[in-house]
Every structure is written in structure tokens, then in C-alpha cells.
Amino acid sequence: MLCIAIYILVDITFLQSNLQKISAPLDTSTVNIEVVHDNHKSLFGEQVDKFLTLKFKLKNRDERFRISESIEIIHSSESSVDSLNNALKNSAQVTVWFKSIRLGNEISVYKLEVDGFTIFNNTEKEKSRSFNLFFVMIGASIIFFYLSLVSHLPKSNLML
């Protein structure tokens, strides 16, 4: 666990330098509502989450990119997915920042620039999420180290 925590700390520290950048004109873009059913999220049955998802492709590139946000967040946000889509469609040049590691067919976008202006930046949110996970992993490592130490000591030497 400590190794995972160190990896997360490195990821937090060098997030911007780990991102790849592609610049090209927009080919296609669509906005869809995705419904995700999760049976494990709630004790009271199935949890249903709705996301507004922007999917787009750049010209002369095979990669498909995605930006998604919870619908609850979208209603109060100034930079909604629809406005991102409109900015993309009216752009001459799009620059996408992403991690090279893929978990599916589509690549999650960390930063999006349109004609030199940043219109989406998710790097700070990702740093915050990774930072919280780092402390959880450090705490879990300390607990497991303590339990391992206690289990190897004779019962007469325990000071609890």
C-alpha cells in the first residue's frame, strides 16, 4: 500500500507533465445523456446516476475524447457540456490534454483549449482527488504496519 501511496504522490506532483497534448481541428462532436446503474453503491437498491457527456473526435486522429459531468453539477455550472460543445463547433483549432493510459475506447480529457483559450481544466480536481487518496493509503499503510507489528509481539509485551 505504501508503494501505491508513493505512486499517487508522484502522480499529484507531476500531473501536468504526465499529460499528452494533441492539436487539430474538430471533426465531430456530440452531447448525450448517459445513465449508469450501480447495484453496489446503495444499501437500498439500485443507484442511478445521470451524466451529460461530450464526445468528440479531431480530424486525422483515431482517438475519441470524452468529457462528462453529473447532471446535478451541470445545472449550476457556467461551463456546461453544451457550452463546451458550442465552443468546439465554432473553433478553428482544438488542443486536448490527456493521460496516455486508456481504460476504454474513449480518452478522458484533463484540459481543453479552443483557439488558444482554456475552456475546460480538470487538472486541479484530479490533483485534489489524488491527494485525498494519497492520505487514505498512507493511513491504511500505518494501520496495517501497526497490526502486523502487534501480531508478531508476544502477548505480554503488548501495550494497548
Summarize the SSE layout with pairings.
Elements: H1 2-13, E1 19-24, E2 26-42, E3 45-58, E4 64-70, H2 71-74, H3 81-89, E5 94-99, E6 106-114, E7 117-121, H4 123-152
Parallel strand pairs: 4-6
Antiparallel strand pairs: 1-5, 2-3, 3-4, 5-6, 6-7
Order of helices and strands: HEEEEHHEEEH
Number of strands: 7
Mean pLDDT: 75
Task: Tell me the radius of gyration.
Answer: 21 Å
Uncertain regions spanning at least 5 consecutive residues: none
- Biggest sheet features: 7 strands, mixed
Strand content of the residues, in percent? 35-45%
Structural class estimated from helices and strands:
alpha+beta
Q: Note the gap between the termini.
A: 24 Å
Residue share in helices? Answer: 25-40%
Q: Please tell me the total number of domains.
A: 1
Number of helices: 4
Shape: elongated
Transmembrane segments: 131-150
Keywords: Membrane, Transmembrane, Transmembrane helix
What does this structure look like?
This protein has 160 residues and is of the alpha+beta class. The chain has one domain (2-154). The chain has helices at residues 2-13, 71-74, 81-89, 123-152, and strands spanning 19-24, 26-42, 45-58, 64-70, 94-99, 106-114, 117-121. Strands 1, 2, 3, 4, 5, 6 and 7 form a 7-stranded mixed sheet that branches. The radius of gyration is 21 Å and the shape is elongated. The mean pLDDT is 75. Keywords: Membrane, Transmembrane, Transmembrane helix. The chain crosses the membrane at residues 131-150.
